[in-house]
Amino acid sequence: MAPKRKTKKAPVRARRTARASAAPRDDAGIVLTEEQQRARRARSIAIALSLAALAVLFYIVTLVKGPGVLDRPL
């Protein structure tokens, strides 16, 4: 059996850490206006509320169906 070749590992890249402030940085490629930041925040809140509503809907449907969900033919 032939010996295994050693492969070179890719260099580990430094990870960028998230900054504590949400303010745009000077070295950023794209700087959002205040209006764009408000629109982004509004979209994020709408997505979060939709996801929470969907989770609640699934929970309610599971409670309504009860343990009968598991009693089905395979």
Which helices and strands occur, and which strands form pairs?
Layout: H1 34-65
Question: If you had to describe this structure to a student in words, what would you say it looks like?
Answer:
- With 74 residues, the chain is mainly alpha-helical.
- It has a domain at 34-66.
- Helix content is 43%, strand content 0%.
- The protein has one helix at residues 34-65.
- It starts with 33 loop residues before the first helix and ends in a 9-residue tail after the last helix.
- The mean pLDDT is 80.
Which tags fit this structure?
74 residues, single chain, mainly alpha, 1 helix
Q: State the distance separating the first and last CA atoms.
A: 48 Å
> What would you call the structural class?
mainly alpha
Give me the count of strands: 0
Query: From the alpha-carbon coordinates, what is the Rg to the nearest angstrom?
Result: 25 Å
Largest sheet, in brief, is: none
Specify the overall morphology. Answer: flat
The overall pLDDT average reads 80
Helicity level: 40-55%
H/E element string?
H
Q: What fraction strand?
A: under 5%
Oligomeric description of these chains: single chain
Tally of contiguous helical segments: 1
Low-confidence residue ranges: none
Give a short synopsis of this structure:
With 74 residues, this protein is mainly α. The chain has a domain at 34-66.
